[in-house]
Amino acid sequence: MNRNELDPDRSPKARFGVRLRTLRDEHGWTQEELAERLGYSGTHISAVENGRRPPTSRFAARADKVLGTGDRLERQGQAMRNPSILEGFPEYVALEVQAVEIRLFELGIIPGLLQTPEYAAAIATGAVRRGAITEQQAEERLALLAKRQASLERSPAPLIYAVLDESCIRRTVGGASVMAAQLDRLTAFAELPSTVLQLAPFDLGERRSFDLPVTLVALANRTHIAYAESSQQGRLERDIRFVQPLLTAYHQLQAEALSQASSVALIEQLRKGSP
After folding, report:
1. Largest Cα–Cα distance of the chain, in whole Å?
2. The dihedral of CA 48, 18, 99, 92: what is its sign?
3. What is the pLDDT of residues 92-102, one digit of tens each?
4. Whose CA is closest to 215, among 94, 83, 97, 111?
5. How confident is the model over 162-201, as pLDDT tens digits?
6. pTM higher than 0.70 for the full model?
7. How many Å apart are CA 97 and CA 90, to the nearest integer?
8. Cα dist. 152→47, 123, 148, 158 in Å?
9. Pairing of strands 99-106, 214-219
10. Rounded to an integer, what distance in angstroms lies between the CA atom of residue 229 and that of residue 214?
């Protein structure tokens, strides 16, 4: 019997489906046998396992009881219904690991790929305290970030161009010691042979090309992709008619921003406590 290959990184529904199938296999049950124990149809089980149908709270709780998993599936289902990762982001991450060039622009916060573990943890902890995400979701978010950062260590490494609004280095996150280490991380990033770091100073004013964060990715086949987020969702854009103007705006931003040398000098001044 042919079995579909499941990719847990495709979506939260896919991750739940992979776990359900794994647990079912460990018990040696067919989909029909599990369905009978749960009070659902075999078609329903198949749809959940293949990520075509989200598990309801009742389904997850019943599966925990039948499979003897405490409340693991129910908690995973709850996290899925209140996701810490925006829609569209997993699809972007799958392309990020294939990128030959990555262009970043960020406001107010250091981009994830450049964050220290302590800085990232402080951001996640803040979200937990506000009730925006659960502790489990925070752990998942940090694990994904570590995985993304590790993927950049491949050979050859992708070229990374990062333009940060000055607010990124002025906003203190996690306290003085965490922020000091984060600034050191930025200067170390700038020294890498495959990176360029620039700051867009406050006095750039209306000459700053973007008012929202944006990420532009180039793949080996020279396809260009844009990814941007709102507070509710992430959007991946592949149509070159919409991506090309963003690329043009990014090049204009790089031309207006401080040089890498001047950017590093400003970071070092801030690191030493100079205004």
Report:
1. 69
2. positive
3. 888 899 999 99
4. 111
5. 999 999 999 999 999 999 999 999 999 999 999 999 999 9
6. yes
7. 11
8. 34, 21, 7, 7
9. antiparallel
10. 8
DSSP state for residue 11 in the 8-state scheme: -
Contact 246, 226 (CB under 8 A): yes
> In 3-state terms, what secondary structure has residue 84?
coil
Alpha-carbon distance of 140 to 144, in angstroms, equals: 6
Which value, in Å, is the radius of gyration of the alpha carbons in the chain?
Answer: 22
The identity of residue 252, as a single letter, is Q
Q: How far apart are CA 93 and CA 11, in angstroms?
A: 11
- The stretches of the chain forming alpha helices (DSSP H) are 12-27, 31-38, 42-49, 57-67, 72-81, 89-96, 117-129, 135-151, 167-170, 176-190, 240-256, 260-271
Within 10 angstroms of residue 72's Cβ, the number of other Cβ atoms is 15
Task: Delineate the domains of the chain, giving CATH numbers in brackets.
Answer: 12-81 (1.10.260.40), 89-271 (3.30.870)
